Task: structure prediction
Amino acid sequence: MDRSNEIVDKMENIFQNTCGSWQNCTDTTIEAFLDQCEQNNIDPQFCMSWVEQHKSEIPGWDTVSKVSLQWVNEHTSTGAPHSFK
Result:
């Protein structure tokens, strides 16, 4: 398996453990998801880009989007992508 598939698989597992489903993705669970992504050295902006692809399945997307954008701005260097360690 190549590195990008490993990252996506890990990210999907984190999503499953924090949000559970698109319908259960809330402002609280999205923060937990982003925290876990960051702790696992996965760029939170990459993770949010992936989540955003499913925004039509997420109730309250506007709130989830605002909270996640604020989280990324607070936890990354001026919103810049993290470098992989």
Notes: The helical segments are 3-18, 27-39, 44-52, 61-75. The first helix runs from residue 3 to 18. The chain has a mean pLDDT of 89. The chain is about 60% helix and 0% strand.
